[in-house]
Design goal:
The radius of gyration is 15 Å and the shape is globular. The chain has one domain (12-135). It contains seven helices and two strands, in the order H-E-E-H-H-H-H-H-H. It has helices at 3-6, 31-41, 45-54, 59-76, 86-96, 98-114, 128-135; strands at residues 14-20, 23-29. The protein is mainly alpha-helical and 136 residues long. The chain has a two-stranded antiparallel sheet.
Length: 136
């Protein structure tokens, strides 16, 4: 169980950490954050996910999604301070690289898209019992 699940946060939540030296950038995607990413990019989340698979999601799309995920994580943590901007997202992407940012964003987004209303297993947990339960 993740610390957020232990704290009572469950549901369609995809979280990630982008590490740069001693600095951690936390990202969070929920259905609300994905709707905000759709608004920021002008594309549906399904089109964005397909774009990751076929190589048509570009740097601008990833930066807008990163900005959305950073801001959702900041709000969720009640961290206060200034909001994350697109400028911040490009700065982080310059620091850690496009590939690392795209990987973290897409992994977090995919958790939300795959959520089926049941508790998701932690990484490394065997998913066989869940699969068996669904066949019943």
């Amino acid at each position: 169980m993740t610390p957020l699940q232990q704290a009572g946060h469950v549901g369609a939540r995809g979280e990630g950490i982008i590490q740069h030296g001693e600095t951690e950038y936390r990202i969070l995607f929920t259905n609300r954050a994905l709707a905000e990413a759709e608004s920021a990019t002008g594309k549906s989340v399904i089109a964005l996910a397909q774009g990751f698979a076929n190589g048509t999601t570009g740097i601008g799309d990833v930066a807008r999604m990163l900005s959305t995920g950073l801001e959702a994580a900041r709000r969720d943590a009640n961290a206060g301070g200034r909001t994350y901007t697109l400028f911040d997202a490009y700065r982080i992407m310059d620091e850690v690289g496009f590939t690392e940012v795209a990987r973290a964003v897409m992994e977090a987004v995919s958790v939300v898209l795959k959520f089926d209303g049941e508790e998701q297993p932690d990484q490394g947990e065997d998913e066989a019992p869940k699969a068996a339960k669904k066949r019943s």
